[in-house]
């Protein structure tokens, strides 16, 4: 497969400023007429060929300025349509193609989902609809006419504003047809095109922008799901208001539409004025959705809406710049959620997520820079690195520039590039120009892969009242990048004294440090560098990397006792959590290495007591206490061990520690559990979800108690729950701890929700993530369950994705059967839906950190996949990188 390189970027020789499309929708034979106005760009000499992208299309005709072209005048292969000698002046090219939406199981381009026509064009789906410059730097104004039978398709939707609609005068195939004519005034790249036709329910609302524009808001869902839309609608309105207030960005059309569909490869898509969502991220009511679902809906609704400015108004010049829209938009949605909920808790969740998804990617065979320099299949670069690490880079720019200069920089970026397809260089230049700061060293974050390592040695000199922070940075080799240059790493820090109070410092020397009251930011720029803090009156511990100010691995010379002190006293709550994580991981690693992890020594007891102090502190936010109680996952522990990993030992050590925690703290845990009972109706807000999270984490410990009292509590909770969060948490605790009590409850849960696919996904995932050894057989039998289908990406992810991603000890079974199961599914799925198959394959990325036996089993399966024929470009790319 060919490799596409950033350095080979060339603008197109022609512009397509506008096009008019007509869709005659038919389940198997949709006819697409695409009339493009094409202009040669200024260039001297002979006009180059016009080469348009197109895949899987049946070409019906090509007309140039209204006359049919003969097949001598153009050339078609399986990827392109080429006109070797186009006219020298602007011309109209009309291409008519036929496509089969029903046969489209890839879910790219135009396809059918539950009898609805829908599209997904990012990244390269438009070329499966018509021949075009299917690349983000070709911006065009779209006029779209949809024609379809009235029956089955009362709604005909596309981007922009509805201009006209009505009945077609003649019947077609004996039925009544109608049409809708859409005009999108904003020039856009093809990946933002969308159309939808079908019989859906419409929920309406409206929003008045700050300048007084009235915007109609329409959310379309399957009939019968109307009562699950209110939270998404509310989140949309809050997002629109927030983008005005925080970024000064108003919505720019009279209509904003969201369509929820049940077959979708990704989470959602920001098509201009017509977002299409995986229904999982729209539909919610208390008895079917959990608090986590609500929070994700809020975040993803916001994310796609925010793309209207960061992605749509300013788009990407090429797909190498994907982080330009995704990193920035994730940063914006994270900030939005922080403003809607608890900022500290949101930061903890995002950091946890980054470490568990992005760090392993950055530390394994799939590592790539936030802005990759080459790819063979762009769909494989919608990654945690591009999205989440990309967001961290925006957060660091803000930390380096300060709030005001950051905001000015963004304003300048919008001012300069509105209506354009931009690059990371454009983005950074706007911040440099607005702030006068030099970001050239910082820009290495976009081109160097790998998680930097920062080691800090802190020494206090009582005589001079100075604290010295000696810092060393390094970055491990990653594929194609054996050596790295030193980066600009902003490390936010404060000082905590022996009495638990913050300690101030007056002056600094030895390096660039910003001071903000009792806090500072170290600007690490050298490989080795020492910062001296002056005027430090008493010995103090540095509280480093507050708020996870840079996506690095931090090491320091602080002792476990020092960290324990920070866990109890740090004025920065994020770093209190960080300290608890550090100590827990160290303990859990130790447990995984012990022959008898059940023994509780003095160190364990000290940690358990310290954790108790936080968990039972009523002054602290409940969501924060729940985060402290969320013991690092088995994957997190494996990542920290880093080599020769034995997932069974990790599992055993972790369970044993949790059991000790439950036993030692049981009296208080029980009391806490009962005190957190819900009063009043369910609210998916920060307070309510924080309380439930804490209570359910407590329950998950109580279930481990040998006296079975916890099991009883879980049974009662399951039966009396008034919402899905509590019902599901009780079921999860019983299932994962392998309690017999789980079986009848799993059955009754299924009976109650069997017609509700999104709830059944939870039921599938729950069984697929059981750490017990019968899990494999359960997953195998669920493959044949009537509720399961490999044709639906949500079902596939719920069962196989959850097994491979969130069941460390069963996916990594020593006998290799976990790998074999997942590999079989990947091979079966590859032909139908390569994008989803490649996603599943990503779960093999950390195979080299395992102990030898498992490595060998994983290799066997990877090699089996690699040699399969045929193999999609998507899967071939991932498997080859995993093996090399
Ligand atoms: N551009 C889409 C997003 O919002 C891709 N799924 O992330
Ligand atoms: Zn996005």
What does this structure look like?
One of its GO terms (molecular function) is zinc ion binding. Its cofactor is Zn(2+). Residues 450-556 form the Peptidase M1 alanyl aminopeptidase Ig-like fold domain. The protein has 884 residues and is α+β, with helices and mostly antiparallel strands. It has five domains: 4-199, Immunoglobulin-like (Sandwich), CATH 2.60.40.1730; 315-447, Neutral Protease, domain 2, CATH 1.10.390; 453-550, Immunoglobulin-like, CATH 2.60.40.1840; 552-702, Peptidase M1, alanyl aminopeptidase, C-terminal domain (Zincin-like fold, Alpha Horseshoe); 754-884, Peptidase M1, alanyl aminopeptidase, C-terminal domain (Zincin-like fold), CATH 1.25.50.10. Helices cover 40% and strands 22% of the residues. The relative contact order is 0.06. The structure holds diaminopropanoic acid and zinc ion. Zinc ion is lined by residues 303, 307, 326, 329.
Could you tell me the radius of gyration in angstroms?
28 Å
Counted beta strands: 33
Q: CATH superfamily of the largest domain, called what?
A: tricorn interacting facor f3 domain
Q: Which CATH C-level class of the largest domain is it?
A: Mainly Beta
Strand content: 15-25%
Largest sheet: 8 strands, mixed
Strand order of the largest sheet: 6-5-9-3-2-12-15-14
Count of distinct structural domains? 5
Structural class estimated from helices and strands: alpha+beta
Helix content: 25-40%
Distance between the termini: 16 Å
Shape: globular
The overall pLDDT average reads 97
For this structure, the CATH topology of the largest domain is: Immunoglobulin-like
Contiguous runs where pLDDT drops below 50 for at least 5 residues: none
**Helix count?**
26
CATH A-level architecture of the largest domain: Sandwich
Small-molecule binders here are: diaminopropanoic acid, zinc ion
């Amino acid at each position: 497969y060919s490799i596409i390189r950033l350095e080979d970027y060339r603008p197109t020789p022609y512009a397509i400023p506008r096009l008019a499309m007509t869709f005659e929708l038919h389940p198997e034979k949709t006819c697409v007429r695409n009339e493009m106005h094409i202009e040669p760009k200024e260039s001297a000499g002979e006009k180059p060929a016009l080469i348009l992208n197109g895949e899987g299309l049946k070409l019906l005709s090509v007309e140039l300025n209204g006359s049919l072209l003969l097949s001598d005048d153009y050339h078609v292969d399986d990827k392109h349509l080429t006109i070797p000698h186009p006219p020298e002046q602007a011309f109209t090219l009309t291409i008519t193609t036929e496509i089969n939406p029903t046969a489209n199981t890839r879910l790219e381009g135009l396809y059918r989902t539950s009898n609805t026509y829908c599209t997904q064009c990012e990244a390269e789906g438009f070329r499966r609809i018509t021949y075009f410059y299917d690349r983000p730097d070709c911006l065009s104004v779209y006029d779209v006419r949809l024609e379809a039978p009235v029956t089955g398709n009362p709604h005909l939707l596309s981007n922009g504003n509805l201009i006209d609609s009505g009945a077609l005068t003649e019947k077609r195939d004996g039925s009544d047809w109608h049409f809708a004519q859409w005009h999108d005034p904003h020039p856009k790249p093809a990946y933002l095109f969308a159309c939808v036709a079908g019989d859906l329910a419409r929920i309406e609302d409206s929003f008045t922008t700050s300048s007084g524009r009235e915007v109609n808001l329409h959310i379309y869902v399957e009939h019968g799901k109307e009562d699950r839309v209110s939270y998404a609608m509310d989140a949309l309105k809050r997002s629109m208001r927030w983008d005005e207030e925080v970024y000064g960005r108003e919505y720019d059309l009279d209509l904003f539409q969201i369509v929820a569909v049940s077959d979708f490869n990704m989470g959602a898509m920001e098509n201009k004025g017509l977002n299409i969502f995986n229904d999982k991220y729209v539909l919610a009511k208390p008895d079917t959705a959990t608090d986590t679902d609500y929070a994700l809906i809020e975040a993803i609704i916001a994310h796609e809406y925010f793309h209207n400015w960061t992605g749509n108004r300013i788009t990407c010049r090429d797909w190498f710049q994907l982080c330009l829209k995704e990193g920035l938009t994730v940063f914006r949605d994270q900030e939005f959620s922080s403003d809607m909920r608890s900022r500290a808790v949101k930061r903890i969740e995002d950091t946890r997520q980054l470490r568990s998804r992005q760090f392993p990617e950055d530390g394994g065979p799939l590592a790539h820079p936030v802005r990759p320099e080459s790819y063979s299949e762009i769909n494989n670069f919608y990654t945690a690195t591009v999205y989440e690490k990309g967001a961290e880079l925006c957060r660091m720019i803000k930390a380096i520039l300060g709030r005001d200069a950051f905001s000015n920089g963004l304003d300048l970026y919008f001012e300069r590039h509105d209506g354009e397809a931009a690059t990371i260089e454009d983005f950074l230049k706007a911040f440099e120009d607005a702030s006068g700061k030099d970001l050239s060293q910082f820009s290495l974050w976009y081109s160097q892969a790998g998680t930097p390592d920062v080691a800090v040695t802190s020494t206090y000199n009582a005589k001079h009242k100075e604290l010295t922070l000696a810092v060393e940075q390094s970055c491990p080799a990653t594929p194609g990048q054996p050596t790295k240059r030193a980066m600009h790493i902003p490390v936010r820090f404060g000082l905590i004294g022996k009495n638990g109070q913050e300690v101030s410092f007056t002056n600094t020397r030895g390096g660039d440090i910003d001071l903000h009251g009792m806090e500072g930011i170290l600007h690490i720029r050298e490989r080795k560098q020492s910062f001296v803090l002056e005027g430090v009156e008493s010995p103090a511990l540095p509280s480093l990397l507050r708020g996870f100010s840079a996506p690095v691995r931090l090491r320091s010379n602080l002792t476990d006792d020092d960290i324990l002190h920070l866990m109890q006293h740090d004025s920065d709550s994020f770093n209190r959590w960080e300290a608890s994580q550090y100590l827990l991981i160290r303990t859990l690693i130790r447990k995984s290495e012990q022959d008898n992890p059940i023994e509780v020594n003095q160190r364990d007891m000290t940690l358990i007591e310290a954790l108790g102090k936080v968990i039972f502190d009523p002054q602290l936010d409940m969501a924060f206490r729940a985060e402290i109680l969320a013991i690092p996952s088995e994957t997190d522990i494996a990542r920290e061990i880093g080599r020769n990993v034995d997932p069974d030992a990790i599992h055993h050590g972790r369970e044993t520690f949790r059991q000790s925690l439950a036993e030692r703290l049981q009296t208080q845990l029980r009391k806490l559990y009962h005190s957190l009972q819900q009063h009043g109706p369910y609210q998916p807000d920060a307070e309510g979800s924080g309380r439930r999270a804490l209570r359910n984490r407590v329950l998950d410990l109580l279930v481990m108690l040998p006296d079975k009292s916890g099991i009883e509590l879980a049974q009662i909770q399951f039966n009396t729950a008034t919402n899905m969060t509590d019902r599901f948490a009780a079921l999860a605790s019983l299932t994962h701890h392998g309690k017999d009590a789980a079986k009848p409850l799993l059955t009754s849960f299924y009976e109650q929700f069997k017609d509700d696919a999104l709830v059944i996904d939870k039921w599938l995932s729950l069984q697929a993530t059981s750490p017990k050894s019968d899990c494999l057989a359960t997953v195998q039998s669920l493959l044949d369950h009537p509720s399961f289908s490999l044709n639906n990406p949500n079902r596939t992810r719920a069962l196989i994705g959850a097994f491979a991603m969130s069941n460390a000890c069963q996916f990594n079974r020593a006998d290799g059967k976990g790998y074999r199961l997942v590999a079989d599914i990947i091979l079966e799925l590859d032909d139908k839906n390569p994008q989803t198959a490649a996603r599943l394959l990503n779960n093999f990325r950390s195979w080299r950190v395992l102990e030898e036996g498992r490595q060998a089993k994983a290799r066997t399966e990877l090699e089996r996949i690699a040699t399969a024929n045929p193999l999609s470009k998507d899967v071939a790319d991932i498997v080859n990188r995993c093996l090399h």
